[in-house]
Amino acid sequence: MTQRKKALEEAERALGEMREALARAGITLPSLRLDTASYADVNPRPLVELGRCNIETARKITHALRSEAGE
């Protein structure tokens, strides 16, 4: 398996885990995806694109993060 393939599979796993965790918190980020340009290099470093969200979703994310941090 090539380094690019391994990096892409790991990024897809991380993306899926994030999508599932957000869903459990009642959060949907419609633009959540992999940034294809970030793994096109010879030494790929895939990035997860979180995209934009509305104010309600931003507050849900903030609440979930604060709850996890014990605030």
N-to-C series of helices and strands: HEEH
Largest sheet: 2 strands, antiparallel
Shape: elongated
Class inferred from helices and paired strands: mainly alpha
Low-confidence stretches: none
Distance between the termini: 43 Å
Strand content: 5-15%
Q: Helix segment count?
A: 2
**How many runs of DSSP E, i.e. beta strands?**
2
Give the overall average pLDDT: 91
Helicity level: 40-55%
- Estimate nothing, just give the exact number of structural domains: 1
Key attributes of the depicted protein:
mainly alpha; two-stranded antiparallel ribbon; 71 residues; 8% strand
Structure description:
The structure is a single chain. With 71 residues, the chain is mostly helical. It has one domain (3-68). It has two helices and two strands. The chain has helices at residues 3-24, 55-68, and strands at 33-35, 47-49. Strands 1-2 form a two-stranded antiparallel ribbon. The longest helix has 22 residues, at 3-24.
